[in-house]
Write a structure and sequence with these properties.
Arc Repressor Mutant, subunit A; 9-stranded mixed β-sheet; Rossmann fold; 17 helices; alpha/beta; 3-stranded antiparallel β-sheet; single chain
């Protein structure tokens, strides 16, 4: 194909390797660590591939027999034509905070610039069914954070997310929207204007290829990036059983600060934040509470760390990459026999919504696979 830049073509093996069935996040990392990057994986022999933990005969043959290069070269051409960059973990401007989280994405689809995530960054999250109070608080906090030089991160969903992006844009500050669909899908449709405004002030980011619809299973995956890009997660409004808790759980696992905005005690959308405050989350009444907790100062941006770690193929003097060990609480329950969703809920004593989100992420990582009838088994 003509018209695809040399820089883009160099990323072809990244897309190709990620497309191979059975190569989840964990195995992708192991293969890259073993062979110095995706390009080296496709040069490896069958014996060398089989020596990597988790590479079955079928996966080895799929890598050796891969011929679908034209498809992914065409994909790179579509990305360039839409002004979307494929940012791999081997590049120095890949968000440093994402390198630190369990199971970091090997690459991101980006419109705009993610350099703003290297400095102070706070995620504002909450319900789609936000009250006027919640919308006002989200918008006001985002505006104040942006004026203080803090990047506002959210998911561009209806309600609290949209208000957060709007407040940051009003202040002319950077904001990053992490999407649960491809960057060519406008969702929700009423946020079309944000697809143009946000890249000019920050970035639209996704882990999903072009054309990926906003399916429910994508959002737990997306949420780990929202918390991963931030230093702190602030819950503005959320119900008692809100999906916002998935983001909170990721934040805690990633070592991020969790804060919450109190609301009227009798309001359904206050139940989530009030519960979090009872459990030890920092109470937020105004932007000063956020800035004070994280020692931010208006106009002061901490310098970005030097010595970027290369996810796949470390440079001279860089520590070798080691894929993080799976620590999900569901994994110990898996054995030789498939488990149904109801069994996993009973065994783990976790809410069904949390079990589903964890199963989705484990499947993305290539650690489990789903069988017909909502049964799950270890990937072999």
């Amino acid at each position: 194909m003509t018209g695809v830049s040399a820089d883009s073509l160099a990323k072809l093996p990244w897309l190709a390797l990620r497309s191979i069935p059975g190569v989840g996040l964990v195995l992708f990392q192991r293969l890259c660590a073993a062979f110095g990057g995706p390009e080296g994986v496709f040069r490896a022999s069958e014996g060398e591939l089989r020596a990597v933990k988790g590479v079955s005969p079928a996966i080895a043959q799929a890598i050796l027999g891969f011929r679908d290069w034209d498809r992914w070269e065409a994909e790179l051409g579509r990305l360039e034509s839409r002004g979307i960059r494929l940012l791999t973990a081997a590049e120095p401007d890949f968000p440093e905070r994402l390198r630190e989280i369990p199971y970091p994405p090997p690459f991101l689809y980006v419109r705009g610039e993610v350099a703003c995530t290297a400095g102070p960054a706070v995620a504002l999250v909450g319900t789609r069914q936000a009250s006027y109070y919640g919308l006002r608080m989200s918008r006001g906090l985002a505006r104040d954070l942006a004026e203080a030089g803090v990047t506002v991160i959210s998911g561009l969903a209806r309600g609290i997310d949209t208000a957060a992006h709007a407040g940051a844009l009003e202040a002319g500050g950077p904001t990053v929207a992490v999407l649960g669909c491809g960057l060519d899908i406008i969702y929700p449709p009423e946020n079309k204007e944000f697809y143009e405004k946000i890249p000019a002030a920050g970035a639209l980011v996704s882990e999903f290829p072009l054309g990926t619809p906003p399916e429910a299973r994508n959002f737990p995956i997306r949420n780990r990036l929202i918390s991963g890009l931030a230093q702190a997660v602030v819950v503005v409004e959320a119900g008692a059983k809100s999906g916002t808790y998935i983001t909170v759980q990721y934040a805690l696992e990633q070592g991020r600060e969790v804060m919450a905005v109190p609301g009227p005690a009798d309001a359904p959308t206050s139940r989530g934040p009030l519960r979090l405050i009872q459990e030890g989350a920092k109470l937020v009444q105004g932007v000063e509470d956020i800035l004070g907790e994280l020692s931010f100062r208006s106009g002061v941006r901490p310098p970005r760390e030097t010595g970027v770690r290369d996810l796949c193929g470390p440079g001279p003097g860089a520590p070798p990459f080691r894929a993080p060990l799976p620590e999900d609480p569901l994994l110990p329950f898996f054995g030789a026999d498939p488990l149904q969703l109801e069994e996993l809920v009973a065994l783990s004593r976790l809410p069904a919504s949390e079990v589903l989100s964890r199963l989705t992420l484990l499947e993305l990582q290539g650690l489990i696979r789903e069988l017909p009838g909502k049964c799950y088994v270890l990937a072999g």
